[in-house]
Write a structure and sequence with these properties.
- The strands form four sheets. A five-stranded parallel sheet has the order 2-1-3-4-5, sandwiched between helices. A five-stranded parallel sheet has the order 7-10-13-6-14.
- Helix 4 links the parallel strand 4 and strand 5.
- The N and C termini lie far apart (87 Å).
- 49% of the residues lie in helices and 13% in strands.
- The radius of gyration is 34 Å and the shape is elongated.
- The relative contact order is 0.06.
- It has four domains: 131 residues, Rossmann fold, CATH 3.40.50; 173 residues, Rossmann fold, CATH 3.40.50; 83 residues, Orthogonal Bundle (Helicase, Ruva Protein, domain 3); 53 residues, Arc Repressor Mutant, subunit A (Orthogonal Bundle).
- By secondary structure, it is α/β, with parallel strands linked by helices.
- The protein binds adenosine-5'-triphosphate and magnesium ion.
- Magnesium ion binds next to helix 7.
Length: 462
């Protein structure tokens, strides 16, 4: 039950209020002057302190200040006032008291104010807890990997998180760009303020402008109400501009201004709004190419690219694969209430052979699928989709035999190559594009090799 301290130099009032609260089930302590009150507050953990303002020596204001200044305590404070001291209680509320009760108070009034204060405190605590959980979710423990390139990314995140520098995250689709943006925000001093995410590639240009900057009432047909944009919503926090490479030239100019001056106007408005927002942008496009082609403004590129973070594709950090697989197995076990044990070695090797064009997202989706489909607690190589282990398997299926007399190396390699090409053509009904894909070589390379080896589609198949 909640613990309450009542402070008043009038013992009669103390007793009346204490009785009302005890009856309601609260644990109650009392103090008759400020000094005793502070001593009690130091020794106990109160949820609520109700104090008179006029006390000898240490008055109610000082007690209030003592409670508010001490960050380790989060007690609520209610002021008791006589009719003549309303002014003082207004001041106390400005300082951080929750409410005041006028003496002589009725018992239901006391209870109402006390309940309201405690309920508020409960919500406040819950809110802090939720924010902590959210923060924890995006600290580094959620970002898995210990390969060299990823360690470099960690180092960068750590260095830049707590600054206001603009960050540009580049990397292929599914490499974890958004996760990195979140890690930066939740490790910055802005963490208790919003992180607003907007995908610039997913919203048509006309909408994107009012989405980003908001609009005034009547700015265009259909603008019936004023609308606050994402930049305003992100004030004091971070805005994550995803797929920045898809932004139109017109909006690029406006964004440049925000970056330079932290100022903008709502669409259809004349009032200039000032904001304090940290900008993180991401793209899977090559922005330098876009700049060279004249699609992306060079000045904007330089403004964004203050701190570049390049996220390497998964195929360039294959040593992260086993860690990621374990991480996702644990994650989906919890989520799907399964108890799949770790993958056997041959299955992990097969995963490491594969190039993961969809990067971590593709790996994550595959693990999820495998876990959903698994019967029992063990997963084997057979449970890994053919499309993933396919490549490795086909190579294994070509038999290699070195005869007693030895071989002519170049001829054997030629022969081996011919077998692989024929098998690929066979499987794809001699569609060269498909066969080349299966072999992971260029179509032109395949055609060249076919010419050189004089490989033709068998007559019977013509
Ligand atoms: N290093 C990592 N550790 C754990 N999970 C990761 C890691 N990298 C990516 N993921 C997961 O992979 C998925 C894709 O990541 P994310 O959305 O951040 O990629 P992205 O680079 O923004 O992709 P896109 O360019 O397609 O938007 C997410 O579910 C994310 O949680
Ligand atoms: Mg993304």
């Amino acid at each position: 039950m909640e613990k309450i301290l009542i402070v008043d130099d009038d013992p009669e009032i103390l007793e009346i209020i204490a009785e009302v609260l005890k009856q309601a089930g609260y644990t109650v302590d009392t103090a008759t002057d400020g000094r005793k009150a502070i001593r009690r507050i130091e020794a106990e953990c109160y949820d609520l302190v109700i104090t008179d303002l006029n006390l000898p020596e240490i008055d109610g204001m000082k007690i209030l200040k003592y409670i508010i200044d001490d960050q380790s305590r989060d007690a609520m404070c209610i002021i008791l006032t006589g009719y003549g001291t309303i002014k003082g209680s207004v001041e106390a509320i400005k300082m951080g008291a929750f409410d005041y009760i006028t003496k002589p108070a009725k018992s239901d009034e006391i209870l109402m104010v006390v309940e309201k204060a405690l309920k508020y405190r409960h919500l406040q605590r819950e809110n802090i807890l939720l924010k902590q959980q959210l923060r924890k979710k995006y600290r580094f423990e959620n970002f898995v990997g210990d390969s060299k390139p990823i360690q470099k990314v960690y180092e960068l995140i750590e260095k830049v998180a707590d600054t206001d520098s603009t960050v540009l995250i580049t990397g292929e689709s599914g490499t974890g760009k958004e996760l990195i943006a979140k890690a930066i925000h939740y490790n910055s001093y802005r963490r208790d303020n919003p992180m607003v995410v907007i995908n610039c590639g997913a919203i048509p240009e006309e909408l994107l402008e009012s989405e980003l900057f908001g609009h005034e009432k009547g700015a265009f047909t259909g603008a019936h109400k004023m609308r606050v944009g994402r930049f305003e919503l992100a004030n004091a926090g971070t805005i994550f501009l995803d797929e920045i490479g898809d932004m139109s030239p017109n909006l690029q100019v406006k964004l440049l201004r925000v970056l330079q001056e932290q100022k903008f106007e709502r669409v259809g408005g004349t009032r200039t709004l000032e904001i304090d927002v940290r900008i993180i942008a991401a793209t899977n496009k090559n922005l330098i190419n876009a700049v060279n082609k004249g699609i992306f403004r060079q000045d904007l590129y330089y403004r964004l690219n203050v701190i570049p973070i390049k996220v390497p594709p998964l195929r360039h950090r294959k040593s992260d694969i086993p860690l990621l697989v374990d991480f996702f197995i644990t994650k989906f076990n919890t989520q799907k209430r399964k108890q799949i044990s770790e993958l056997p070695r041959d299955a992990v090797s097969a995963l490491m052979e594969y190039d993961w064009p969809g990067n971590v997202r593709e790996l994550e989706n595959m693990v999820e699928r495998v876990i959903i489909l698994a019967n029992g607690q063990k997963v084997s190589l057979d449970d890994i989709p053919e499309s993933i282990k396919g490549k490795a398997k086909r190579v294994e299926s070509v038999e290699v035999n070195i005869p007693m007399g030895g071989i002519v190396f170049d001829e054997a390699v030629e022969e081996y190559e011919k077998k692989l090409i024929l098998q690929a053509l066979d499987e794809t009904n001699w569609v060269k594009t498909k066969a080349a894909k299966l072999l992971n070589i260029n179509r032109t390379t395949l055609i060249e090799k076919m010419k050189k080896k004089k490989l033709h589609k068998p007559a019977s198949d013509l």
